[in-house]
Amino acid sequence: MAKVAGGDVERIAAHASMQGLSHIFVRVGGLRGLDTLSEAAAILPAAHARGIKVIAWYFPYFKDVDADVARSVRTIETTVDGHSFDGFAADIESANGSKLSAQTAGAYSRALRARAPSAYLIAVPPRPTKHALGYFPYDATMPHYDAIAPMVYWSRFDPAESVASAMQFLSKYGKPVAPIGQTYDMGDEGGPRGNPPPHQIWAFMKESQRLGAPGVSFWSWQHATSPDWWTIRSYEWTTTALPAPPEPSLPCRVFLEMVPSRLANVCPSRPGR
């Protein structure tokens, strides 16, 4: 975070507060171990002072399951001036170098729950598309977490339909489902060029709320445009009437220069516990 606002966590937390966020997800490590843990943890006091929860985000590669578990537990136990992470998110997905399988991901999830029985654990799986259902070990992993935050990056598909199908499938695990939406350009992955338009982000949030999601988040802060931020901020997450889309002519007050490159997601409502 040193490259943003001079590493000033107070300014970064103030920006999150200005946007009305209740949570931020911060990357703590992955293939290179806990390479950003200390950097991510530094924001804990400033965020907590503003009532913002901080969720640690770790990407296990399953090359050494015991090492992945140890890093995860170390993260959960990390404190800064008495402040600790409010939750731990395991980004369980296939990637270059990953040894994802039902055996490895299941062993990691079971061991993590056993080693951190009181921690609030969030599973971050891929959207359960027909392709993902053919390889991803949902049944071996999801039962061991307190909540599920599926990566619902809709690309060229309808955002409301995409999140609805994901939430309906994952509901069978009896966990709160808080979807992660798209605020980045999927052009290189076969989707339309550019970030999704505001009406798609709004549709994603509205359908998530309609289906009972306790909140949503987005990948990613560093890729979000001013219209993205404004749409997220404008949406009122309530438990009663669903809000109507805002007028596009309203001003946008976003200061992206304050955004740290290591902060992974934004979440305008608590994932639930």
How would you portray this structure in words?
The chain is α/β, with parallel strands linked by helices and 273 residues long. The protein has a single domain (5-267), classed as TIM Barrel. It is 33% helix and 14% strand. It has ten helices and ten strands. The protein has helices spanning 9-18, 37-41, 44-49, 65-77, 102-115, 130-133, 138-141, 159-170, 198-210, 226-234, and strands at residues 23-29, 53-58, 79-80, 83-84, 87-91, 121-124, 147-148, 180-182, 217-219, 263-267. The strands form two sheets. The chain has an eight-stranded mixed β-sheet. Strands 3-4 form a two-stranded antiparallel sheet. Helix 4 runs parallel beside helix 5 (102-115), helix 8 packs parallel to helix 9 (198-210) and helix 9 (198-210) runs parallel beside helix 10. Mean pLDDT is 88; it is low at 248-273.
CATH architecture: Alpha-Beta Barrel
CATH topology: TIM Barrel
Walk across the major sheet and give the strand order: 7-6-5-2-1-10-9-8
User: How do the helices and strands follow one another from N- to C-terminus?
Assistant: HEHHEHEEEHEHHEHEHEHE
- Number-wise, the strands total 10
What is the alpha-carbon Rg in Å? 18 Å
User: What is the molecular shape?
Assistant: globular
Report the top-level CATH class. Alpha Beta
* Mean of residue pLDDT values: 88
End-to-end CA span: 29 Å
- Give the percentage of residues in beta strands: 5-15%
Helix content: 25-40%
